[in-house]
Every structure is written in structure tokens, then in C-alpha cells.
């Protein structure tokens, strides 16, 4: 099994916030000492077609890769095992266009033959790690095991202390400018985290985005942004951040903010005059480690479970493949029973029979399955009693008789159904001087010590 990393999200323009979550997962792999040779880089469009070695894919993104209309034909390859670390249904608040009740029934196909809903897929790969409380409550309400992890970009390592000077305004609305101290504007830079791919290859685009976050880390004294995935990773790297909630938001309710790091200042337009433009960064190393170790534990648990079950299956596969060629034991004993009755008590002969071994498993309520099989061959044969050394009473409306009470008429016979009863039954039949016509050993006959001695004595002679 390999480790997967999503490095392209299927759009002509890149929202850097999607990619920075992959950068965080890549950092997680580094913490786990996973060599790059074990990591396979995959694009959103390849989610359906991937056919290589089994791929463990940490998923810590908005679920839109699965349920947006432009991805309606995306199917998850059978070779991909998703590990949901911090998924989010925030897109369901996208102007009310994607209501949750629609998500409940959206189909997803993990194979070409079987279609299941996305909720059924979540059940299969539970527990589901959720980025926000909204998503956690939604998943948990469906009876699916879930937990709150928060955003994976909270785990980025803190930069070293230094003399950082730049103020970055990343996708900020212009109405905030009058409130910004002039001192901060003297060394300010305006940037956007939503950029055209410009014909770049997947690798070139991914590296460009990594360089952007490195640029923030190495230069920013302050980041002011309306982008969740600018504020969260920059704050994790030790940069003081101010989050500006947009006045006009395409989200009817911005559920992402319910787990925005509490140390990040959050302001709306009515609060601009109260903004603290010189915030002090607050350390949260303990939380970082909680999130990182939880994610690592999930990845390792799934990897261990799938690799070990795969090895177990691989070991047994030849036996599984050959199982159909194994003779059906039920057919074998039915054949043995039929041959005996047709040879000794064939239609239209009338007779009675006993079953040695009062076994509950032979009964379906008051119906004795073995007796029914006899009657299918010759309905003129009547089951009268059980024979059992250790049991007494009634079973399936038939009395249980001790072996020493057994006495057979000419038209009666015994079927020995219990393996453990065979030696006692044969001893009793010898004492009664029964012919082989009057008994059938239907169960297996086990090797006895006397059998070995008999063969050994023949070998010596």
C-alpha cells in the first residue's frame, strides 16, 4: 500500500486554500518519516481511474470533490482507501444551492457495478474526522461515527523568531483600508490566493503554491485576510493574523468560522474601528500536537488494518479460489443416505428407523431434517425414536431411548448421525449381531487405536 496526496483539484484557477491542506498532509508524512518513494501524487480527476497499488488517501478538504455538479461523474476507485481527517460540508451553505437533504441521497459508486450513496461510503470508512462543528453534527446525526479535528493546517511548525516587516493584505475588501494605520501601509503588499493556472503543469502549480506560503512565513509581520486558509496556516507558522469577514459573502452562513482558531482576531465591517492592528501571536503548540498525533494515529491504524487484512487475504486466496471445487459434504451424505435406502428399503417397502444421536442441530422445531430426507427417498419409512447414551427425554416430539434398550425388527434400521457415537454404536450392533442392512453409519468414522494396531500387525507379518 502507498500513501496518496492530492496535488490538483480539477479547476482552471487554483484556490490556494485547497492546496495548503495537501501541503499540511505532506508535512504530516514528514513527521511520520514516510519516504517520498512511498507517496503517490494524484489529481481529483484520477480519483475514479487510479488503478495502481492500493492507495491510502488522507482527506481533509471540503467534500465538493465528490458532490459538486461538475464532479458528478467522479467515482472513487476501488484501489483508494480514504481516511477522512478534516472534511467539511461548508459548500452546502453556498448560496443555498446545495441543500443537505440533497447530499443525503447523492449517489457514489466505488465500483462500476454497485452504486451506493455517499452516506453509505462514509459509514464504510468511518470514523469521519470533521473540520467544523457543523459537519460533525451533520455526520453524527446520520448515526455515523465522527469526531471534530479542526483544520489540518493548524499543524504547521512555527517559524523562528526574526525581524519580519511586511503587512500582507490577502483578498481583503477595500472598505477596510481607511482603518489601517499608515505605518502598516508603508511596507504592505496586496495579494490574492485565487490565481489562474497559466498553463502550468500540476507539479509547477503545486510548487508555486508552496512557495507562496513560504513567502508569507519568511516575510510577514502581519497578515490581514478574508481567506480561512490564509489565516489558519499563517497563524500556525507564528504570524499574527486578522481575519476580516466579508460584508457580502457567498456563504449563507460561514460555518467554517465555528472552528477558526480562537487566537485569530475576527472582525466584521461593523467592528473595523475596534481592530487591534498590532496583535501578539499566541502559542498553541499543545493543540498542534493533539491534531497531528490524532491524524497520524488514524493514518497508521487504517494502513495497518488494510495491509494486514490484505496479507491475510492473499495467503488464503488460493484456497478461496479453489473452494468451489471442494466436494459438498451435504451432497456426499445425502448420496450415502439415498444409496443405502434404495439398496435396502426402497419404495414401496414399509419400515421404521431410529436415529442414533439426539442432536438439536438436526431439528427445525419439531421437524427432524434427517428424517425428512429419508422420507423424500421413501415416504413409507417412519422415524420412531432417538438413540443416545447420554441424553433422555423428548426431542422434536420423539422419545430418546438408551442404547441397551434398542431392539430391532426385520423391517427396522438405525442411522448413526453422531460422530462421537460411532464406536459405541458398532459395539452395540456387534452384540445384537445386526446385519449391515440394519444400520447406516452416516457420520464420519474416526481412526481408533485398534485400527492402528491392526494395520501395524499386518505390516509386521
Q: What does this molecule look like?
A:
There is one protein chain. With about 450 residues, the protein is α/β, with parallel strands linked by helices. The protein folds into three domains: about 1-155 and about 285-315, no CATH class; about 155-285, Rossmann fold (3-Layer(aba) Sandwich); about 330-460, 3-Layer(aba) Sandwich (Rossmann fold). It is built from 13 helices and 23 strands. The protein has a six-stranded mixed beta sheet with strand order 20-21-19-16-22-23, with helices on both faces. The longest helix has about 40 residues, at about 285-320. The two termini are about 60 Å apart.
Protein traits:
single chain; alpha/beta; Rossmann fold; 3 domains; six-stranded mixed beta sheet; five-stranded parallel beta sheet; 13 helices; 23 strands; elongated
Summarize the structure.
InterPro entries: Polysacch_pyruvyl_Trfase. GO terms for molecular function: transferase activity. By secondary structure, the chain is an alpha/beta fold.
SSE layout and pairing:
Blueprint: E1 2-8, E2 13-15, H1 16-31, E3 39-43, E4 55-59, H2 64-67, E5 80-84, H3 100-103, E6 107-109, E7 115-117, H4 118-124, E8 128-130, H5 133-141, E9 146-148, E10 166-170, H6 182-185, E11 188-191, E12 194-196, H7 202-219, E13 220-225, H8 228-236, E14 241-244, E15 265-267, H9 285-322, H10 329-344, E16 351-356, E17 363-364, E18 367-368, H11 369-377, E19 381-387, E20 393-395, E21 398-401, E22 412-416, H12 422-432, E23 439-441, H13 449-460
Parallel strand pairs: 1-3, 1-4, 4-5, 8-9, 10-11, 10-13, 13-14, 14-15, 16-19, 16-22, 19-21, 22-23
Antiparallel strand pairs: 2-12, 6-7, 17-18, 20-21
Helix pairs in contact: 1-7, 1-8
Amino acid at each position: 500500500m502507498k500513501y496518496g496526496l492530492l496535488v490538483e483539484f480539477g479547476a482552471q484557477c487554483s484556490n490556494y486554500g485547497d492546496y495548503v491542506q495537501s501541503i499540511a498532509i505532506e508535512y504530516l508524512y514528514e513527521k511520520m518519516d514516510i519516504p517520498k518513494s512511498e507517496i503517490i501524487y494524484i489529481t481529483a480527476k484520477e480519483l475514479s481511474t487510479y488503478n495502481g497499488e492500493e492507495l491510502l488517501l488522507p482527506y481533509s478538504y471540503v467534500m465538493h470533490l465528490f458532490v459538486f455538479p461538475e464532479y458528478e461523474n467522479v467515482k472513487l476507485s476501488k484501489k483508494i482507501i480514504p481516511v477522512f481527517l478534516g472534511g467539511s460540508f461548508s459548500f452546502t451553505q453556498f448560496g443555498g444551492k446545495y441543500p443537505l437533504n440533497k447530499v443525503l441521497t447523492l449517489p457514489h459508486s466505488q465500483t462500476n457495478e454497485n452504486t451506493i450513496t455517499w452516506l453509505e461510503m462514509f459509514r464504510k470508512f468511518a470514523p469521519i474526522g470533521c473540520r467544523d462543528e457543523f459537519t460533525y453534527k451533520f455526520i453524527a446525526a446520520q448515526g455515523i461515527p465522527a469526531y471534530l479535528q479542526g483544520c489540518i493546517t493548524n499543524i504547521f511548525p512555527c517559524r523562528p523568531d526574526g525581524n519580519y516587516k511586511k503587512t500582507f493584505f490577502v483578498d481583503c475588501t477595500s472598505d477596510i483600508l481607511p482603518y489601517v494605520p499608515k505605518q502598516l501601509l508603508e511596507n504592505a503588499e496586496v495579494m490574492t490566493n485565487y490565481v489562474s493556472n497559466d498553463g502550468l503543469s500540476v507539479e509547477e502549480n503545486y510548487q508555486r503554491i508552496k512557495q507562496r506560503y513560504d513567502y508569507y512565513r519568511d516575510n510577514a509581520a502581519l497578515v490581514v485576510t478574508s481567506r480561512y486558509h490564509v489565516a489558519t496556516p499563517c497563524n500556525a507558522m507564528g504570524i499574527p493574523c486578522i481575519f476580516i469577514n466579508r460584508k457580502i459573502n457567498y456563504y449563507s452562513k460561514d460555518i467554517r468560522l465555528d472552528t477558526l482558531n480562537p487566537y485569530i482576531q475576527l472582525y466584521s465591517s461593523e467592528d473595523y474601528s475596534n481592530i487591534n492592528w498590532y496583535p501578539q501571536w499566541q502559542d498553541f503548540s499543545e493543540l498542534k500536537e493533539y491534531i497531528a498525533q490524532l491524524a497520524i494515529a488514524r493514518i497508521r491504524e487504517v494502513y495497518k488494518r488494510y495491509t494486514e487484512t490484505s496479507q491475510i487475504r492473499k495467503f488464503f486466496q488460493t484456497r478461496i479460489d479453489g473452494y468451489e471445487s471442494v466436494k459438498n459434504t451435504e451432497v456426499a451424505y445425502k448420496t450415502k443416505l439415498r444409496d443405502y435406502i434404495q439398496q435396502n428399503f426402497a419404495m414401496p417397502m414399509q419400515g421404521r428407523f431410529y436415529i442414533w444421536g439426539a442432536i438439536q442441530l438436526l431439528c427445525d422445531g419439531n421437524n427432524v431434517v434427517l428424517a425428512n430426507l429419508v422420507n423424500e427417498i421413501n415416504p413409507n419409512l417412519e422415524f420412531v425414536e432417538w438413540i443416545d447414551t447420554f441424553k433422555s427425554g423428548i426431542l422434536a416430539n420423539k422419545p430418546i431411548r438408551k442404547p441397551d434398550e434398542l431392539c430391532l425388527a426385520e423391517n427396522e434400521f438405525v442411522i448413526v448421525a453422531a460422530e462421537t457415537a460411532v464406536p459405541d454404536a458398532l459395539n452395540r450392533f456387534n452384540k445384537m449381531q445386526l446385519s449391515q442392512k440394519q444400520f447406516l453409519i452416516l457420520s464420519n468414522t474416526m481412526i481408533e487405536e485398534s485400527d492402528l494396531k491392526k494395520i501395524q500387525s499386518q505390516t509386521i507379518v
